[in-house]
Amino acid sequence: MDVLDNTLKTPEDIKETFGYKVLGALPHLDRLSEDVREDAFRALKNSVRYAMSSKNVRSLAVISPGRQDGRTTVAFRLAEELARSGSKVLYINADLRKPVPVKTIQEVGMKGLTDYLSGDASLEDILEPPGLREFYSIPSGIVPPDALTLLDSQCFMRLVSQVAGQFDGVILDTPALEEAPDGMVVSGKTDGALLVIRSGRVKSRQAESMKSALEEARIPVLGVVLNDTDGRMVHKASDSRGLYGKR
Ligand SMILES: Nc1ncnc2c1ncn2[C@@H]1O[C@H](COP(=O)(O)OP(=O)(O)OP(=O)(O)O)[C@@H](O)[C@H]1O
Ligand SMILES: [Mg+2]
User: Fold this and answer.
1) Could you read off the pLDDT of 134-174 as tens digits, one per residue?
2) Which site among 68, 134, 143, 221 is 20 to 30 Å from 15 CA-CA?
3) Using CA atoms, how far apart are residues 247 and 244, in angstroms rounded to an integer?
4) Around 223, how many Cα atoms within 13 Å sit in the side-chain half-sphere?
5) Residue 153 covered by a domain
6) Distance 75 CA to ligand 1 centre (A)
């Protein structure tokens, strides 16, 4: 083992550094069959849904420190699994910093969150109907010059509380915190945040300063998803109930 490697890898590392509950661990997904992947996401959904209902959380921002940590994977698949189990769910792409292909906007005339927050579209205009049961979504829209201002607004706050009253669960995707503070701002407008930590990417010092920032901003962190773990390590480190919880 590399003695200089002090990155967070196991649920124990997360608990020690953050003190947050580890709600689930996702294995490396690449070579797994879709069935096995679904099992992993379903187990994650069960544990997140339990935490959401016991803490009365309807709107949940999915945040993480780095690019490519797996926020979109976690947010989208979590929303999908919640819908599959019968909940009425809304996935909002509040990562306004990723360009949507121009072709999509021109050909479909698609409007998104940025249009709504700029006053150019209504909720009806941007709410995409369910492809699966009651799984609705709101796309991000075109990249605005002032993403943070749009998100740090009364208009966005009102939208989040409005949809939280209409859906069983609202899951919000955000950009990496190293890219922009949007994730903190979005979390401040939701009932809680789900923190994604990709195994082997975050040094314990970084994690500690992140924890201070979250505490200072009084972000209620529902728990952590440890992403892309080495399965054997998780098995060894998990408690008797297993990290994936009961089905
Ligand atoms: N557990 C995993 N196993 C294998 N690949 C993964 C896993 N989680 C995420 N990935 C892959 O890593 C890449 C980044 O994932 P994703 O887009 O979900 O992250 P993100 O944090 O939303 O990234 P971005 O910073 O670009 O928004 C994708 O190619 C995704 O398929
Ligand atoms: Mg993403």
Assistant:
1) 999 999 998 999 999 999 999 999 999 999 999 999 999 99
2) 68
3) 8
4) 22
5) yes
6) 11
Q: Distances in Å between the alpha carbon of 24 and those of 44, 59, 228? A: 5, 19, 11
Domain membership of residue 204 (yes or no) is yes
Q: Tell me the ligand closest to 230's alpha carbon.
A: 1
| 140 falls within a domain | yes
CB 63 within 8 A of CB 172: no
Choose one of 29, 32, 68 to mutate for the ligand 1 pocket test, by most ligand atoms within 8 angstroms of C-beta: 68
What range defines the domain where residue 127 resides? 51-225
Unique residue bearing structure tokens 């701002």 = 185
How far, in Å, is the centroid of ligand 2 from the Cα of 128?
19
Helices (H) and strands (E) in the chain, counts: 11, 7
Q: Does the Cβ of 66 fall within 6 Å of ligand 1?
A: no
